[in-house]
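[Primary structure, fold]
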Amino acid sequence: MRVWRDNWLLFTIVALILCAATILLPQLRLLSASVIGDGGSFSVVHRGSGLEPVPEMSDQFQTETAGKGNALKVTRGSGFALDISRMDRQTLRLAAEQKIGTTMDESGNLSLELGGNSLAVSQQAPRGLFNRTAPDPLTAAQEPDGSVVLKHAANAYLTFNDAGRRLTISNYVDFVTGNETVQATLNSLFISLSATLIAALIGVSLAYVVARFDVMGTNGIVFFATMASVSPPFLGAYSWRLLLGRNGVITNGLGVDFSIVGIHGVIWVIAWLVFPVIFLLSYSAFRGLDASHVEAAESLGANPAKARFSVEIPLAMPGIITGLYLATMAALSDFGTPRIIGLDLNVLPVLIYTSFLSEAGRNPALAATGSVVLVAISSLFLMAQQIYLAKRGFSVVSSRAIDRRPLSTTGQICALGFAGLVLFFAFVPHMTVLVTSFMEWRVGLPRFAFTLSNYTNMLESGLTPAWVTLSLGVAGTAVAFALGLGIAFVLVRKRYAVLAPVLSVTVMMPYVIPGTVLGIGLIMMFNEAPLQLTGTWFILALAYVIRNLPFTVKASEAALRQVHPALDEAAISLGARPLRVFLTVTAPLMLAGAVTGATLTFLHIVTELSSTIVLYRPPWKPMTAVIFENTLVDADFGVSAAQTILLMMIIYVPLYLVVRYGQSRRIENA
């Protein structure tokens, strides 16, 4: 068989099966949970005055009173009809067009069989405070005409529950008609679009200035923007709240009656969280422009402003639009910021989380429906980006880099001032955490006194969360690195007719699936034997791998496209087997790009919150969950600040080394 002769075909099949089991099937479980529901229930109360329906205890059934309260007609669509009539104070007759069957199990539970529907019948009888007499039991007797005589306790509430599973769109109807769910959806869209707009104005403007003008310290600006792009997502929320909250350091110091807490604060914090992504992609796009286009526009009489808006920005739109898309997705799926700084602000990620895991009001069907809606919104944004880019042409035959324009002294001051102001706001959370980690805390408020006790307390409380984070980061990165290399090779070199495109789409799916949705899908998929992973270290590692696999695949794919196939063919012509060629020739040449993807994977794993908060169970509690929960309950932030500094060291040290390694490699190659 070909599959046994072609190792890469076997790898592709295995990779596709694994991706389907961990990506596709969990999402299908979520989809099925949103469209499959129970058959509903209805309740009636039988008092001395007659029969009464209980609408607040009825779902999917309609009840209509007849005979001045002596009878009820119960229907559900056109396929179910049941007549309930009163015989005496504790006896009812149930009749239908079909014969009604009765069953009583060993525990005394009564069920009625009616036209393919099984209704479990229960009663709740009121009892006086000093009444020691047990209520009469629930009994049923079959009549010759097919009806059933039901005897029950006095003044009992009778509930008929159909636990059968059936296809339904009621969850979606409830979602689009419920005030809470509609408001959560609108809030999510408003926050994500508003924050992205603000971030775009900041990021694109700064990118253009740095890319097109000879600004001092350009490399430093890009490096610090890169550092800001991988900060923990909840860091900004608590820091800005600490500074500008109702009892914030700045608001109290200035005596200002202002609070950043609310939807305006969420937009502000998320804008600074996502702007680095827009900046970095826009900067790359502006630096990649062809100088001949700008020169042609200027030779035709276009002034710099007209050339900028008619040539430069339109040609840079692929990078700008991609940055806007990534920023919108990050804002749309952000769980930590609205939770910390939004008070009771309801957004989709928070609604999904509370519906699935809340101890009070748990509603898995609502969580599943909200998850599908959130994925659908993410997919629509992706489709809009792809359609926009597909309808326009941005490619050039040859590319000659644009020389940066010199700036006057005043221009340098303005450019550096603008860049410094932007980076200052981006790093306000980092500076706040660093300062507060050395301050004393009393009753949740900082005192301006230097201390190392926060770090001492952190060490005394144990570094288990740090080891959990590091172990997940290293293991998840290693697995994603190995899989990403292999999958990229299949997609670029092998190009199997059906398997390769399906594998490519499947691998990229987690990029449009928010973390909370991914976590809930994995819980539904791996919550039962034989693979009961919920609550273990492995389900966290699995979530991190599949959520960040697109980084390693795309980075490795980009690197492989720069490796000419002739190098592989030369090694094969000398007798090397395909696997050896990949390990000794192709993979080393892909290493630079793959390391970049692996670095992004590691950084996103150690800062991941949205899927972590759904999946973790003690003792496997990463640092992000520990810090987030401490900030959420307004505990003394000193120890949390120290933990955040440790997390930032875990993030920025490898990032700095990779940047320095990349720069040194570029210098050597030059």
Remarks:
- The chain is about 60% helix and 15% strand.
